Amino acid sequence: MLALSPPVFPAYGWPLEDPIGHEHIYFSRESEKTINSIDNANFFQPQPPQTLELDHSASFTYHSGDPNMVKKLNHNASERHRRKKMNSLYSSLRSLLPAADQMKKLSIAATVSGVLKYIPELQGQVERLVQRKEELFSKLAKQDNQSGKKQIQQKKGINRGSLSAVSATHVSESEVVIQISSFGVRTTPLSELLVHLEKEGLSLISSSSFESSGGRVFLNLHLQVEGSYRLEQEALSEKLLSLI
Question: Which of 30, 77, 83, 190 is the most buried (most CB within 10 A)?
Answer without folding.
Answer: 190
